[in-house]
Amino acid sequence: MSVLLIEPFYGGSHKQLMDLLQEELQEDCVLCTLPAKKWHWKARTSALYFMQTVPTSSKYRFMPEHKLARLDKVIGVKRNGDAYQSEGLPGQEESRAVMKTSDAHLESGLCEPQPGLCTTQHEGLPSPAAAPVRAEAPQSTNPCQGEDKQRLTFNLSNILSGLDYQQRPLHIAWPHRWEHDKDPETFFKVLMKLKEQDLTFHVSVLGETFSEIPDIFSEAREVLGSSVLHWGYLPSKDDYFRALCTADVVISTAKHEFFGVAMIEAVYCGCYPLCPKALVYPEIFPAEYLYSTPEQLFKRLQNFCKRPDIVRRHLYKGETAGFSWAALGSKFRSLLAAEPREDL
Questions:
Q1: Which end of the chain is more exposed for a tag (fewer CB within 10 A), N or C?
Q2: pLDDT tens digits along 178-203
Q3: Which DSSP letter does residue 238 get?
């Protein structure tokens, strides 16, 4: 089996899945990526980039015959043996202009100075003319991270180790990207309201940062003050899971979510989830873990702050085993090995 994996946003849970597939499949596996920046631009333009850079191979670039015939009519595709090359594709010239590595395009996150962003595990497969380069995870540009980040990381273990487990304040985790589609504004406004009412809690904000950070983060960091246990991205997965294992509640306020790996990971680490009653969440989480409005979220956290022992004794009523590789690995293999169907 030969597999082509394409990931235009190679970071976070996207990177985690691609790396897992590449590691577990072991066979001829080609991974083509772009850096995890400007996801809205990647959605619009990454196809143009991959159209020119993905290596052509008869081992995996197959399509059903009826689709190839249709493609011949629409864009003039000419077959060349088992592989095919395209001539006169719409937007090809525009694509070349877009992918030039000018300062403006680099700022937009469409491409990096490296000439290629494909990685392979099999030397026999064709590769782009440029030397393959693996896309690295983006470096944090969060001004709140650095010495202060280290201090807070150490304080996390120091504070928690010196308190009786049941007497500790409620520990809230928010493990999402520091971007507007995760709605940090709602999350922090709820926490600020808890603070105004002199309710005691700790918070760990663990998500990844990019070039633009919403203003609410600096405002919230100042207002929350000593309630903050950790502030910033943890590059070490062990440190990340350790932080989740010390948390009591994990919150999502997302406006955009196709699955929510971070929430499942936190539940697996023992956190009580609170998610919007929207998007994908009702398909995954039982009703008692869902809220409809910020006011409902506030009231749930208000009660938990007063009685954190309720959360700590709680046993999650949903299922997480079905999301493990042990459960899904064979399904991924079957899907990737399947012959093309006429109805696709």
A1: C
A2: 999 999 999 999 999 999 999 999 99
A3: H
